[in-house]
Design a protein that fits this description.
The chain has about 200 residues and is mostly helical. The chain contains ten helices and no strands. It folds into two domains: about 120 residues; about 60 residues, no CATH class. The relative contact order is 0.09.
């Protein structure tokens, strides 16, 4: 999809929302901008949406009160409905999203713990592999590799290459991750993600 097509799809969804509920449309627009930093739909993955809903919304959108968070999740759900992205709409409205946000109401540390538990239970989170144990905290190169590996695993699930719950699926998940992070990449000057992570950790 071209830049223009991305922009048109987003604008069409927001226009339809404005015809239904102008306030919800503005909420969805702001949330989308914070989520992507652009108007490109391909900036969104299950992982980046989880991070937004379960961490960034309650901790970084400081102009909102906790009572506003359900308004954001519902607006995003409707936005993704209109974009024909039902899995993301479902995630915005999911019980786990409500549970994590409710934990933040009880306290930031409880919220962060709920976020970590929810994320670790997600099927798209990259597993540790023989070549690499992901850091608890990550610098830029490692975080980019982690984010992109999560997007790769999501696509593998969608394509049927990784079948959740099938015999050996965890091993398959590790194999896919190992291959992905060790693949030489022209955009990295021939380095792999693993090369960049090792260099970053040693710097």
């Amino acid at each position: 999809m071209s830049d223009g097509a991305h922009t048109a799809a987003v604008q069409q969804a927001l226009d339809e929302m404005r015809s239904e509920d102008p306030k919800a449309a503005e909420t969805a627009r702001q949330a989308y901008q914070l989520l992507t930093g652009s108007t490109r739909l391909d900036r969104i993955s299950q992982f980046t949406l989880q991070e937004f809903l379960w961490r960034r919304l309650p901790t970084q959108w400081v102009s909102l009160e906790p009572t506003d968070w359900p308004t954001v999740t519902e607006a995003l759900g409707r936005f993704f409905d209109l974009l024909d992205m039902p899995r993301y709409a479902e995630l915005a409205r999911a019980p786990i999203t409500r549970q994590v946000l409710a934990a933040y109401v009880e306290g930031d540390e409880l919220g962060r713990e709920a976020y970590r538990r929810a994320l670790s239970a997600s099927e798209v989170v990259p597993p540790n592999v023989p070549e690499l144990a992901w850091g608890i905290t990550m610098d830029d190169e490692e975080y980019a590799a982690y984010r992109d590996t999560a997007a790769m695993l999501e696509l593998a699930i969608e394509a049927g290459e990784l079948v959740l719950g099938a015999p050996g699926w965890r091993e398959k998940q590790r194999e896919l991750t190992s291959t992905y992070i060790t693949l030489p990449r022209p955009e990295l000057g021939g380095d792999s993600y693993l090369d960049r992570i090792v260099a970053e950790r040693e710097a």
